[in-house]
Design brief:
311 residues; 12 helices; 86% helix; flat
Length: 311
Amino acid sequence: MSATTGGALLGTAFGLGLVLLLSRAVVVRRPDLSVRVLPYIRDLPQVARSRTAQARRHRSPFHAVFAPLLSDAAAGVERVLGGSTSIRRRLERANLPLSVHDFRVEQVLWGLVGLGVSGCVSIVVALRAPDRTLPLLILCAVCFVTGILLRENRLSVKATARERLLMTEFPTVAELLALAVGAGEGPVAAIDRVAARCRGEMADELRRVLADIRTGTPVAAALDELAARSGLPAVARFAEAMAVAIERGTPLAAVLHAQAADAREAGRRALIESGARREVLMMVPVVFLVLPVTVLFAFWPGVVGLNLVTP
């Protein structure tokens, strides 16, 4: 092959590579459909699903290889533990964009992390003491199960923490809704105004209600869905009372003020009960730490004096 032919081939290959790079750069720089559409439907519930679909399109090769194994393991955990309805309910209460299957996969991953940590420690111990292999295997199994149960416990903690935030924010949001309705705005406009100017978990719930209303759901049905997914009696009573007031035409501002007052009273009772429980817990260090030390200081000098006096 002559130098001219080799140079032509190299030039052709370089040109084709450059064309491929430029075409790919044009495709990458082109804005995605979701980027162009999402600013106009940002308050609709399809936003979270589109982001989830976009994340699924960009899965890694690791996920492509191990996803079937993780799915089978998640199905096994579901068969052993069960309670998919409770898991789904807690996922809604914690406002996590996960399905029950995705949560089971996370449980398996947490269990594998516990298994990996305990396995590394067990290998080091087994190399020094081979007779402890069986207890170490049992320890690895216990760590795997502990990781799975710890993920479920973490979900319950998140759901409880979010409910606590909802109860903390609920009286203020109800008062703001009452003020907006009392100023002459309609229920939907009041929800829109409060949701646009507030931040927090209760404001997110109002945004979901507003998104349901804008997609064609009746106001009463959207409020009923809020009452169903909240998991809190106070929020459920608020949504039901607001729906009834809208349907029957009763004074909405008075209903909202009454709901806010009831929520504040419930929060005050919960605070008193929590203080009573803390008072009992405060007695534990006093009884088991301070009191024994005080008794020791009171009787120890007498014991030493008796030892010195007696022959």
